[in-house]
Amino acid sequence: LLDIYKSGCASLNMKHDAPVSKYYERLATVQARGSQASYQVLRDILRDVQNTMIPRTLLRDWALRTFPSPTDYWTFRKMLTLQLSLACFAEYVLHLTRLNPDMMYIHQDSGLLNVAYFKFDVDDSKGELDANRPVPFRLTPNLQELLTDIGVCGPLTASTIATARCLTHPNFKVQTILRAILRDEMIASHKKKQEDQADNVNTPPTDVPGELIITMVTRAVSAIIQRLNSLANFEGTDSKVSTLVAAAKSSDNLCRMDPAWHPWL
Questions:
Q1: Percent of residues, the chain, with pLDDT higher than 90
Q2: Which is nearest to 131 in space by CA: 40, 226, 204, 215?
Q3: 111: closest CA among 65, 61, 159, 66?
Q4: Which of 111, 172, 202, 236 lies in disulfide reach of 76, CB 3.0 to 4.6 Å?
Q5: Contacts of 122 (CB under 8 A, 6+ apart)
Q6: What is the model's pLDDT at position 124?
Q7: Residue range of the domain that includes 30
Q8: 125 and 161 housed in the same domain
Q9: Do both 102 and 180 map to the same domain?
Q10: Exposure string (b/e) for 84-117, b if CB count within 10 Å is 16 or more?
Q11: Strands 128-129 and 104-106
């Protein structure tokens, strides 16, 4: 995705990091006046970048150039929609690190999406999964434009719900699998915290207490299962996924993301 973005910027005769530079320049200007960067300021900066530098159609234009045949374009977009729904599901439910453009590899021949460097987003200071993020997953303006509103509200939302239900009905021992995976994550997180503390006081790190790890893992698994169940269970036509999609699309939330995440892409 980052290469597509770079080629799009090149076609606009612009450096790919120019929007990030502009973001910080605008922010510095505001702070130089002695005022705090409010949500309104961040929202204005994001809107300015979209209006003057990175259009919403950059990704869609690339797809149209790459797939001149309507059938190829439709097939690519459909597969990418389903693949992105899985990535969004995993990022939100499993509390994974934010999905940066340089982590997304899109296969042009199939629309398959490969994500590199995804890992659990563990807050080392607390030893807990970090659930505090402005957007639940990556559904930025250019992705919205490519998938279209129908694609987002239809296949993407539906497949996210279907995935959640597959993992909860019947119960495929998801909790047991998560415990095995998260155990290593929590041990590594705790050791890192100890090493940081040891560097400050020059004492060697001690072994990780078993009871503490069990508590940390149980807490993390509970957080994941809670999110999983919230997506799988819904009454009538209302689903938590629709709420999350709205939050991911909201410019109020996108503007609070790190510019290195490229919220305009």
A1: 0
A2: 226
A3: 66
A4: 111
A5: 128, 129, 130, 185, 186, 189, 220
A6: 65
A7: 1-168+246-261
A8: yes
A9: no
A10: bbebbbbbbbbbbebbbbebbebeeeebebebee
A11: unpaired
